[in-house]
């Protein structure tokens, strides 16, 4: 019975309906008008969309079973080790750094806008480093390994990536004065939207979302981010607001004549959990072992993926710029990332 109860709790936890169920049992439906009630209603949306997306994949005969299988294993593995590693990184940083903030915001609409812009800046830094520093790429590559896009990809993360990401994002926000309560609200909204932008073609064929494609980062933009096409590599690092990508020259629209190829450039068995989860670490260790001298060994950990001690670099920046020079030389103000 304990096993069945544990399984039931895991299913309820994944679907995110426990809070809604508790409110329904009390009969106090007015609770849905409170912040906690609204959160309880929003939280199950993504898990339910994942189920709908999976069902539609079966209907359209595009089940993407390999992606769902591996991402499900990643979700289970991360849940298992999460029981033994409880890293309250956000709380620790707030406690350690809040007294050093340049100033302090409040829970108002205009500070919310400010806070969201700052959060996106922190997210940009973490995400950019995740693509440009080889060791951080080892943490982030699990998320890019799937060769098809669907909502289950939002669960494809190496278990140490979240603490690393939250360390950077929270540090930036707290030092720049974002109130902790405001920060938690932004994190909830951004986390929900960040899951939604992984929606696949089975559920949303055109991910541009109409006029919004020119205002915010849409699923179309995030599909570009997950692509390994030379034009699309290392672009669209933001989550919702695209101001930092545009400011730093990493913004890229989805081109109608360039079909997205998902995945990473390393040859990988995307249906193999071990290769998806640990493969980049293995590749890094092999490069370090072959590299001559301590300096080169250290450089492999901090230089971008594709860097080589031989000078025959194949980083995303080099590959993308070569593609741009060969294929669209007339494009004005080409983004160099």
Automatic annotation (TrEMBL):
The keyword Lipid metabolism applies. GO terms for cellular component: endomembrane system; membrane. InterPro entries: Fatty_acid_hydroxylase (IPR006694), Sterol_desaturase/TMEM195 (IPR051689). One of its GO terms (biological process) is membrane lipid metabolic process. It is a multi-pass membrane protein. It comes from the Bacteria. It is found in: Endomembrane system. This is Sterol desaturase/sphingolipid hydroxylase, fatty acid hydroxylase superfamily. It comes from Arenibacter nanhaiticus.
